[in-house]
């Protein structure tokens, strides 16, 4: 005698809607995310030998157009010396790091070094990119 079994329904899950939702979430997060860029775009000159610089120093950045940034805050040449003097008074080590764009005019670099000395900077470090 032959036994007849009842057929079980074949259960399957359709993954297409799940994949659609996952891709929509991926696109949403890609479009809404923000990428942080450095505030100041500088093309630093390269050097083979270099020492590590400590971050407790004041950082002066000069871009290719001669704009001056004091700890990433834009400042004018006229206000630079007073602003730097205020920052240096708060520090024990009166050290300054200068980051200058490799395409900036040399006169801006010399002018900032002179103003930093007048403001009370004892040590002036020149920041460059390691090759």
UniProtKB/TrEMBL annotation:
Gene3D superfamilies: 3.30.420.270. It holds the Pfam family ExbD. GO terms for cellular component: plasma membrane. It is a single-pass membrane protein. InterPro entries: ExbD (IPR003400). Keywords: Cell membrane, Membrane, Transmembrane, Transmembrane helix. One of its GO terms (molecular function) is transmembrane transporter activity. PANTHER family: BIOPOLYMER TRANSPORT PROTEIN EXBD-RELATED, EXBD MEMBRANE COMPONENT OF PMF-DRIVEN MACROMOLECULE IMPORT SYSTEM. This is Biopolymer transport protein ExbD/TolR.
């Amino acid at each position: 005698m032959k036994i007849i079994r009842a057929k079980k329904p074949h259960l399957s899950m359709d993954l297409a809607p799940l994949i659609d939702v996952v891709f929509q979430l991926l696109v949403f997060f890609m479009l809404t995310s923000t990428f942080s860029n450095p505030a100041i775009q500088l093309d630093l000159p390269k050097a083979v030998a270099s020492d590590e610089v400590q971050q407790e120093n004041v950082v002066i950045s000069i871009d290719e157009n001669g704009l001056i940034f004091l700890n990433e805050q834009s400042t004018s040449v006229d206000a630079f010396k007073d602003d730097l003097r205020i920052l240096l008074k708060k520090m024990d080590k009166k050290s300054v790091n200068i980051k200058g764009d490799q395409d900036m005019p040399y006169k801006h670099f010399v002018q900032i070094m002179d103003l930093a000395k007048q403001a009370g900077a004892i040590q002036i470090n020149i920041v460059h990119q390691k090759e």
